[in-house]
Write a structure and sequence with these properties.
The protein is built from eleven helices and eleven strands. By secondary structure, it is of the alpha+beta class. Helix 3 crosses helix 11 and helix 6 packs antiparallel against helix 9. The radius of gyration is 21 Å and the shape is globular.
Amino acid sequence: MRRLLLSLVVVTALIVALGAAGCGGAAQTAGLPEADSPDLSPEAILTAAVAASEDMASAQGSFEFTMSFDVDTSQLPEEALGLFGQPMTLAGTFAYGADPQAVDFAISADLLGQAMDMGMKLLDDKAWFRFLDQWYEAPAEMQGLMGDPAAQETQAAELQQMLTDAGIEPLTWLNDLRVVGEESLDGIPVYHLAASPDIAKMMTDLIALMQSEQFMSLLDPTGSTGDLMGAGMLMPGTEEMQEMQTQLASMFEDLTADLWIAKEDSVLRKAAIGARMVPPAGEDAEGLNAIDLAATMLFQEVNQPVTVEPPASALPWSEFEKAMQENPEMFMGGLMGALGGAGAATQTY
């Protein structure tokens, strides 16, 4: 079961990356072909959506991620019932504006029976985080990084160059790309595209990136999580990922991706990704039959003004650090309890 859970971590990261594949990257075409054009292929529609994403100055919307467990309770050990007995969910809303820079995230999570509410606001060069019901000002060094559009553009350019140098093109992760039909989403005419993600190709590219010191430095410029990642606490090591790569094909019964792209302006309006994972052949999962993943992101109010108000009663970051030192359970008890439960359950297999 431990290998299945580690694979789940990797696949979750890949699903997130796949969701972004339809929203960025190099593009060759600006705008969809005319309605009477002979080239209304799914590749042309998706390429136009990638190009349109580069001009997306603002958007509001919602997202939801659900992880459900298909278990045989008669075989599942008692200590694992709390871990797999109910779905895990992560849902929320977002608003993003580029000029002036403004971001507002509200997140509600239910992990292993532990409910947590979190939030983030970014306005120009100021940033705030919400834990439980209290807002805190982000530390100065983080605010400078998050609130500097030039630095963000530089990072995006560096990432794109890394992908190009490594020969990685996220759009090649989609097999059997096709147009399902023309639909209406919130009153907007859209093309509905569907595809079957290539998990082996995604894994190969992910391993290549994780072996790049430049990429890891871009993800973690301060080096604060480098030791944890190197120790395999946040992500499996390269060797273990390569072992999992050979098993993933048999572990997936289904992996789907659906995109809804506006006909008028080629803007991505909705993305949905689903997957069903089963234990590797020959591995005793002791009651865990499968894990079902579903992720949806909805884009609304695209290129419309976004207003973000600073929190009224934010405390300095030093107060958060002080509270964490005095009573870490106040903030992290639920999450650490969940992780501890997961660790205890996986150690039995």
